[in-house]
Design goal:
The protein has one domain. The chain has nine helices and no strands. The chain has helices spanning 4-23, 40-65, 72-86, 88-97, 102-130, 135-140, 144-159, 164-178, 183-191. Helix 1 (4-23) runs parallel beside helix 3 (72-86) and helix 5 (102-130) packs parallel to helix 8. The two termini are 26 Å apart. The radius of gyration is 18 Å and the shape is globular. It is mainly α and 194 residues long.
Length: 194
């Protein structure tokens, strides 16, 4: 099956996710900058989640660039990823509204963890379709960066009950580590161009 419908659908869902997140932000009553201060948790959680959705969109683009076609398993794996990403607006709003409280921060970490696992599953579904010598398999190798991200999210989930600021710093640190699109895929694809 061609991958164009999968790409178009995924792009649409990600655009809707960002739209829902921004619609959760409420304008303050008042015109002074001081009226923004109580909204900082919501703004900061939105910025963090916007960055994460952007990271997924960029890396999803690179990931699908390596695929020549998709299977039913790839379609379902992609839907699984989109499901977890669609929970970002909920987790973001809950965490921001509750000023990075323990349980909302842990749920945010859980959603990040599940999205990362779903991305890993999608990678492997694509590798199965593309075969043992696929561009993607050569590019990601053992995917230590992805695996370490999941470990970091789990640590942050537990840290949110003990040291809340540490959980947030871990979420930010992982986002910063992924901010640049996955160069492994770019390098392999560029090296194979005639």
């Amino acid at each position: 099956m061609p991958k164009s419908r999968l790409e178009a659908f995924s792009d649409g869902v990600l655009a809707i996710i960002i739209t829902i997140m921004v619609l959760e932000l409420r304008a303050p009553h008042g015109e002074g900058l001081d009226t923004l201060l109580p909204l900082m948790p919501q703004l900061l959680s939105y910025v963090l989640s916007f960055i994460y959705v952007g990271i997924y969109w960029n890396n999803h683009h690179h990931l699908l660039h390596t695929a020549t076609h998709v299977s039913g398993a790839v379609l379902w794996a992609n839907l699984n990823l989109l499901f977890w990403l669609s929970l970002f607006p909920f987790a973001t709003a809950w965490m921001g509204e509750n000023h990075f409280g323990s349980m909302p921060s842990a749920v945010y970490g859980f959603v990040l963890t599940m999205a990362a696992i779903a991305y890993f599953v999608l990678e492997h579904a694509i590798m199965r379709v593309e075969g043992s010598d696929s561009v993607l398999r050569r590019a990601v190798g053992k995917d230590w960066k992805g695996k370490l991200s999941v470990v970091a999210y789990v640590i942050a989930m537990f840290a949110s009950f003990a040291v809340q600021w540490l959980a947030q710093m871990i979420y930010v640190a992982v986002a910063l580590a992924w901010l640049v699109p996955d160069r492994r895929i770019e390098r392999i694809v560029d090296s194979e161009r005639p």
